[in-house]
Design goal:
Shape: globular
Largest sheet: 7 strands, mixed
CATH architecture of the largest domain: 3-Layer(aba) Sandwich
Number of strands: 19
Mean pLDDT: 96
Strand content: 15-25%
Low-confidence stretches: none
Number of helices: 17
Radius of gyration: 28 Å
Number of domains: 3
CATH class of the largest domain: Alpha Beta
CATH superfamily of the largest domain: Aldehyde Dehydrogenase, Chain A, domain 1
Bound molecules: nicotinamide-adenine-dinucleotide
Strand order of the largest sheet: 10-11-12-9-8-14-15
Helix content: 40-55%
Structural class: alpha/beta
Oligomer: single chain
Length: 525
């Protein structure tokens, strides 16, 4: 089998690694989606009444149900993505229980009712609490790059907050999403975690089907459409889009560790990671040594399924392969130097591509400007940190950015100047697997906030319960009289810190309440 003879063009139909045909998955008819959302709404009514403690216990049970069958889901993900089973187990499956536990702590810190402090002098007799109310049914539209774990970020907070969810997996990885929904349904019962299958038309139809909020992870082009439509429908939305992450390697870095770290985060998931290092800004003084060692490491990274243990899988689909090859061609035409990779691997089988390092890249190259989403790093040599920061920030995207240096104070100062949502010193992208760190960005990366307590506005609305236990009317109610003016003046004095004004206020309030009572009782005569 080779890519010449295998047709990989039908989304999700074949293994990207071997070209083997996979089982058929039925598309959800768009006219059935409103009914699925309605069933979700019915299930949500009881779920919203359950305590956070009960919801938490049930979600931990669901996470355990996943782990009991971890080999099974790892096989499915491996077939759909081409990643090896050990890679999938490590990066997608094994962390679910820990993720759930941390997500529960975030929910506990976020969802409880908050008492409001109200001045007893200015507003006597009044108390208020602000409570969190679930939105209802949340649509979760996902891409294919981490087809399983990408769901965790919205799934846990949405359910912990008392919502039902409808998952829309990518058409490239439908079986993984379906399996996840099945495990959760076994524990939580029907309707709370449903799934709709298909392409963009199904995602678009989900938005029209009565959902109360939507989270979207995917490309900039689709994200804009989803955000625009959600805006028209006035439903909360969180859109997490592309990336073009930069790493800045300074001359004082820990040389060997930085080599390993850059290799890891440029090639993790075959570079099909919104938080992959795609641009490397390196100080000229160490560039020759660092880049030649980096190229040697890239050559050592093994691509599935050629080896029993391999660090990365193939590209997931032919469009990705085409983008990678187009960016490399463009860079070479514009003067980049190819130091590693640059071609397909696995003897032409599947969609594997060798880890690729391009040196002497410049700002006008596609591989520097556009998201590549593949196993490719563009090296840009700089004179100093100022040039590195300026050029790293000259991007439409802003998800992660990292600085590699042994001077942590200097590293933090540079990190703060990076125009990104997640700025790191001596690491990259790892917060993406943590349930208590907001995964968010700037510019074309989108306005969404995924994971952590900061993501909750998509999943809850706030409702204030305000209770007045006063027996008399409020002193500022109708009718107005000469005391009304004095009341305002004394309130101003009180707000400016006059201690006597509190005593004065009590006297005016008493007179006002008496006047209001008389006014009301006169109307009964
Ligand atoms: P995509 O935009 O093509 O598709 C994403 C999802 O949207 C799929 O489920 C698709 O069927 C659905 N969809 C397509 N058209 C739609 C429409 N009109 N309305 C509603 N849904 C629609 O993206 P992709 O190729 O699957 O994913 C790759 C992209 O995702 C990359 O740009 C990557 O950077 C990004 N990504 C971002 C993050 C992040 O957290 N920022 C994480 C992972 C991936």
């Amino acid at each position: 089998m080779n890519t010449e003879t295998i047709d990989h063009s039908r989304p999700g139909a074949r293994s990207p690694a071997t070209g083997e045909a996979l089982s058929e998955v039925d598309t959800t008819p768009v006219e059935a989606i409103a009914g699925i959302v309605e069933e979700a709404r019915e299930a949500q009514a009881d779920w919203a009444k359950a305590s956070l403690g009960l919801r938490s216990r049930m979600l931990l049970e669901a996470a355990e149900a996943v782990l009991e069958r971890s080999e099974e889901i790892a096989e499915i993900i491996s077939q759909e993505t081409g990643k090896s089973v050990p890679e999938v187990l490590l990066n997608e499956v094994s962390g679910i229980n820990e993720y759930a536990k941390v997500a529960i702590k975030e929910a506990e810190a976020t969802l409880g009712p908050a008492k409001v402090s109200i001045s007893r002098v200015a507003y006597p007799g009044k108390k208020a609490v602000v409570e969190s109310v679930p939105r209802g049914v949340v649509g979760i539209i996902a891409p294919w790059n981490y087809p399983f774990s990408i769901f965790f970020k919205p799934l846990f907070p949405a359910l912990l907050a008392g919502n039902a969810v409808v998952l829309k997996p990518s058409e490239f990885t439908p079986r993984t999403g379906a399996w996840l929904a099945e495990r959760f349904t076994e524990v939580l019962g029907d309707g709370l975690v449903s799934v709709v299958q298909g392409g963009g038309d199904v995602g678009a139809a989900l938005l029209e089907s009565g959902i109360d909020a939507v989270t979207f992870t995917g490309s900039v082009a689709t994200g804009r459409k989803v955000a625009a439509r959600a805006g028209e429908l006035l439903i909360p939305h969180s859109v997490e889009l592309g990336g073009k992450d930069a790493a800045i390697v300074l001359a004082d870095c820990n040389f060997e560790r930085t080599l390993a770290g850059i290799t890891q985060w440029a090639l993790h998931n075959c570079g099909q990671n919104c938080g992959a290092i795609e641009r490397l800004y390196i100080e000229e003084s160490i560039a020759d040594d660092f880049v030649s060692r980096l190229a040697a490491l890239f050559e050592k990274v093994r691509v599935a399924p050629e080896f029993e243990y391999c660090e990365i899988g193939p590209l997931q689909n032919p469009a990705q392969l085409e983008t990678v090859e187009r960016h490399i061609d463009d860079a070479l035409k514009k003067g980049a130097e190819l130091l590693a990779g640059g071609d397909r691997c696995n003897g032409g089988q599947g969609l594997g591509f060798r880890p690729t390092l391009l040196d002497h890249c410049t700002d006008e190259m596609d591989v520097v400007r556009e998201e590549t989403f593949g196993p490719v790093i563009a090296v840009l040599r700089v004179e100093d940190e100022e040039e590195a920061i300026r050029r790293a920030n000259a991007s439409n995207y802003g998800l992660n950015g990292s600085v590699w240096t042994t001077d942590l104070t200097r590293g933090k100062a540079i990190a703060r100047r990076l125009d990104v949502g997640v700025a790191l010193v001596n690491n990259h992208a790892i917060p993406g697997s943590m349930a208590n760190i907001p995964w968010t960005g700037t510019g074309d990366t989108g306005t969404g906030i995924a994971a952590s307590r900061y993501s909750y506005p998509t999943f809850i609305r706030h409702q204030t319960i305000f209770v007045d236990s006063s027996r008399g009317p409020d002193p500022w109610w109708f009718p107005f009289n000469e005391d009304t003016r004095e009341l305002s003046e004394t309130l101003i004095e009180f707000s400016l810190g006059s201690v006597f004004s509190a005593i004065k206020l009590a006297g005016i309030a008493k007179r006002r309440v008496k006047a209001i009572r008389e006014w009301v009782s006169e109307s009964g005569n």
